[in-house]
Amino acid sequence: MAVVAAAIMISFHLKHEPSPIELKLALPFGIVFWFLALACLVNGFANYLKTVTHYSRRAALVQSGWKTQVIFTVVATAIVAACVLFLSTNASSR
Questions:
Q1: Concatenated DSSP letters for 22-40?
Q2: pLDDT (tens digit, 9 = 90+) per residue, 37-83?
Q3: Long-range contacts of 68-72 (CB under 8 A, 24+ apart)
Q4: C-alpha angle with apex 13: 10 to 87, nearest 5 degrees?
Q5: CB neighbour list of residue 74: distance below 8 Å, 6 or more residues apart
Q6: First CA to last CA across the chain, in angstroms?
Q7: Cα separation of 20 and 34, whole Å?
Q8: Which residues are CB-neighbours of 49 under 8 A, at least 6 positions away?
Q9: Which of 70, 75, 72, 71 is CA-nearest to residue 33?
């Protein structure tokens, strides 16, 4: 996620220059993806701590809860929205 955020923020292109719309949206989308990367990291660390605590009591059940499901639903939605946006700006710029 952090690599994707960095690529979005610098408007990474191989063959052509980014369009003005892409340049305007690069920073906000990059910041959103940075926050999503941090949310995933924090969520994974919280799951880890919870599992280790339960291991100490010999009652560990490794599974994701509703918070993890919510975070990954938001991440998936953001990825789909970014793909649709980038494909639509690319289609309109040709």
A1: HHHHHHHHHHHHHHHHHHH
A2: 999 999 999 988 888 888 888 876 767 788 889 999 999 999 898 88
A3: 68/43, 71/39, 71/40, 71/43, 72/40
A4: 100
A5: 36, 39
A6: 28
A7: 22
A8: none
A9: 75
